[in-house]
Amino acid sequence: MATVTRNDLAMRLRDKFGFTASQAGKLVDLVFDEICESLVNGEEVKFAGFGSFKILNKSARIGRNPKTGETAIVSARRVAAFRPCNEFRKRVAK
């Protein structure tokens, strides 16, 4: 299975729209920075035909070490979550 990197995205922008490699790289970085900044500020980020990103606040809970079976406290935390839209799910299922 192949992995698409930031550089791959930048090169696709360069090839498709004629940006220089530097411009394409800056554009990809700018988009990801804006997504991150919006999520940090508590905003949900939605992309039509793709899905949405949001931050979930997870409460502290009692967990278990699967190797030893010992219980431990899992601290409260914030996690990023992605929810694909139905159109995206259908495309992936094909």
Structure in words:
This protein has three helices and five strands. The chain is α+β, with helices and mostly antiparallel strands and 94 residues long. The chain folds into two domains: 1-43, Irregular (HU Protein, Chain A), CATH 4.10.520; 44-94, IHF-like DNA-binding proteins (HU Protein, Chain A, Irregular), CATH 4.10.520.10. The strands form two sheets. A three-stranded antiparallel beta sheet has the order 1-2-5. The chain has a two-stranded antiparallel sheet with strand order 3-4. α1 (6-17) crosses α2. The model has no long low-confidence stretch (mean pLDDT 95).
Short synopsis of the structure:
The protein folds into two domains: 1-43, IHF-like DNA-binding proteins (HU Protein, Chain A, Irregular), CATH 4.10.520.10; 44-94, Irregular (HU Protein, Chain A). It is 43% helix and 29% strand. It has helices spanning 6-17, 21-40, 86-93, and strands at residues 45-47, 51-58, 61-64, 71-74, 77-84.
Distance between the termini: 17 Å
Low-confidence stretches: none
- Tally of individual domains: 2
Strand order of the largest sheet: 1-2-5
- The assigned CATH architecture of the largest domain is Irregular
The name of the CATH topology of the largest domain is: HU Protein, Chain A
- Overall mean pLDDT: 95
* Assigned CATH class of the largest domain: Few Secondary Structures
DSSP helix fraction: 40-55%
- Let me know the number of strands: 5
What sort of overall outline do the alpha carbons produce when their principal axes are compared? elongated
Quick one: biggest sheet? 3 strands, antiparallel
Strand content: 25-35%
> What is the succession of H and E elements?
HHEEEEEH
Number of helices: 3
